[in-house]
Design goal:
four-stranded mixed beta sheet; two-stranded antiparallel ribbon; 6 helices; alpha+beta; Chloramphenicol Acetyltransferase; about 35% helix; single chain; about 200 residues
């Protein structure tokens, strides 16, 4: 599933609203945790958030995807309002970010032989990238540029939200079932509603 969530004006308003809490990533994760609670009646939302790990200047000119994942746990049912949820997410991201530098091979060793993945995707992710600083990004439509999402036969949902000059773009990979498709459509509709509606409250 790939679509534009909102245009530039709504994306900018959401970004400004979320800035005191850490920006659009925090807002998207807060909205996602609320939606998962609403759709699935899950009091706690768990995912993995990718962070870049290119921390020193020696790696700035190298080519590659320097990314590590940090686990995130949000007790969405405990938040009385959206600003409270934003604070929860912001706190959880700050606490979890150092874990993104832990190599996944080490994590799997620590989990031991009892950990038996049942899916090619080890975990669900929600990724946010502000792509406006990429050279040529203002010509994305003209260049027909887009992110690639590999096909997977896993049982996890992976979502990528990109901030473009044109607005917020959404792409996802999810299980090929009717219920997954239905819930992803509900998720995208509700995410759009929150991104547009929250700054207007």
């Amino acid at each position: 599933m790939r679509k534009m969530l909102v245009g530039a004006e709504d994306a900018a308003a959401f970004e400004e609203y979320c800035r005191p809490f850490g920006g659009s990533l925090v807002g998207v994760l807060a909205a996602t945790s609320l939606i998962v609670h609403e759709i699935g009646d899950r009091p706690v939302y768990r995912t993995v958030v990718p962070f870049h790990t290119r921390r020193t200047s020696q790696w700035m000119d190298s080519v590659g995807w320097y990314v590590g994942g940090a686990p995130l746990e949000i007790p969405a049912a405990q938040a009385p309002d959206f600003p409270s949820l934003l604070r929860m997410v912001s706190t959880a991201l700050r606490a979890g970010r150092p874990l993104s530098r832990m190599p996944i091979a080490r994590v799997l060793r620590l989990l031991g032989s009892d950990f038996r993945p049942t899916s090619p995707d080890l975990y669900s992710i929600v990724s946010f990238v502000d792509a406006r600083g990429i050279p040529g990004s203002e010509r994305r439509a003209e260049l027909k540029a887009y992110g690639l999402v590999r096909v997977s036969y896993g049982d996890q949902v992976c979502a990528w939200i990109n901030r473009l000059h044109e607005g917020l773009q959404f792409a996802s990979r999810y299980p090929g079932t009717d219920i997954a498709y239905k819930n992803m459509r509900l998720y995208v509709e509700r995410l759009r509603e929150l991104i547009v509606g929250v700054p207007r409250r």
